Amino acid sequence: MFAVVVNDEEQYSVWPAHREPPAGWRPEGTRGTREECLTHIATVWTDLRPLSARP
Q: Among 5, 22, 31, 46, fewest CB within 10 Å belongs to which?
């Protein structure tokens, strides 16, 4: 089981659900298989630039 995590720059990643996310990352709320999490990320993370680099 995996969880989608997000940081303050609105960058997404997949993290093992049974572990605390690394410093600077927080759970986004989506859990599932790695493939399900990656599919969700592909849907919601449409602008890959860090938040600080967006106009």
A: 46
* Residue 21 in domain: yes
Q: Domain count of the chain?
A: 1
Condensed to tens digits (0 to 9), the pLDDT of residues 1-55 reads: 999 999 999 999 999 999 999 999 999 999 999 999 999 999 999 998 889 998 8
- Among 54, 40, 31, residue whose Cα is nearest residue 12: 40
Q: Residue 9 belongs to what domain range?
A: 2-46
Task: Residue 13: give its domain's CATH number.
Answer: 3.90.820.10
